[in-house]
Amino acid sequence: MKFGCAQGELYVGFVLSNQLGNRLITKVLKPGDVFVFPIGMIHFQLNVGKTNAVAFAGLSSQNPGVITIANAVFGAKPPINPDVLTKAFQVDKDVTSYLQSQFWCDNN
């Protein structure tokens, strides 16, 4: 995805895959800056300015799809074994059980 900042300041980034050491790549975009998110990478954008931000995204398809990680992991049907999530996220089993008990809406 190509992502351009038209107004404000945006902190953007993505995480490289496991094979690449889960390295975080970030940048603060100012008006006129463009950032490219590689296909399939977990990515984010956050307004860090003192005003509203405006950005434009160019995608590779009319419907590239969305995977909301929390919904997919903690809202899986049937549920993922909490022991798996406890190890993966390195949190207490009570935390994973609590998160799995929450209502995870489908935002696609």
Automatic annotation (TrEMBL):
Keyword Metal-binding: yes
Domain of life: Eukaryota
UniProt GO cellular component terms: apoplast
Cross-referenced SUPFAM superfamilies: RmlC-like cupins (SSF51182)
Xref: InterPro entries: Cupin_1, Germin, RmlC-like_jellyroll, RmlC_Cupin_sf
Gene3D superfamilies in UniProt: Jelly Rolls
Binding locations of Mn(2+): H43
Compartments, as annotated in UniProt: Secreted, Extracellular space, Apoplast
GO molecular function, one term: manganese ion binding
Keywords linked to the UniProt accession: Apoplast, Glycoprotein, Manganese, Metal-binding, Secreted, Signal
All residue ranges annotated as the Cupin type-1 domain in the record: 6-94
Family according to the record: Belongs to the germin family.
Protein name, entry field: Germin-like protein
